[in-house]
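Milestone M4 deliverable, item 7.
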Amino acid sequence: MRLVSWWALISSACAPVVLVGGWTVAERLYGPGYDWWTDTISTLASDGAAGRWVMTAAVIGLGICHLITAIGLRAASLAGRLALAAGGVTAFVLAWSPEPPSGGSLRHGWVVAIGFTLLALWPVLAARGRPRESVPWTLRVPSAVAVTVLLALGAVWFVLALRHHGAAGLAERVLTTAQSLWPFVVVASCLRSTSRT
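Output delivered:
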C-alpha cells in the first residue's frame, strides 16, 4: 500500500485554487463596497451578499479537498490526518453558519476559531518521529513545529487586525492561503520521497 495516494496530490493542489478563485469571483460580484485589505472573506459569504453562493461553494470545495487529502495522506500520523479532516468538516459548518450582514456572529466566530486551530495544529500532529532518512522533510518534527508556529502567528495577526480595525482582510488571506497550501506541500514531499526509494 502506498503511503500517499496519487489523487491526494490533485485534491491538495485544488484547495488553494478553489479558495483563492472563490474569493476572487465573489469579490467581483460583491461590487465596489468591498475592501479586500480590511474586509474579511466571511463578508463575501454573508447573508445577502451578491457573491454569497460563490464563496459558500468555495468553502465547501475547500472542505472536500481537505477531507480527500486527509484520506489519501497515509504517510502522516493518524492524529494529523484527523485534524486535517476535522478542519475540512469545519468548512462545511462554516458554509452553513454565515456571518450576518451586520457582522459579528458568535457562532460564526467560534466555527472560524475552531477551523483555524485545527488547521494550525495538523502539521505538528501529522509529524512522524521515525529516523530522519525515512520521513519526508514536511513530516519531520522540526519542520512541522515551525509551520504550526507560523500558522499560529498568522492567526494572532488576524485577530489583532480584527480588533484594531487593521488589515484583517489581508491577514486572513495570507493565513488561509498558507493553511490551504501546506497540505499540497506535504503531499508533494511525500510523493517525491516515495519516488526516490
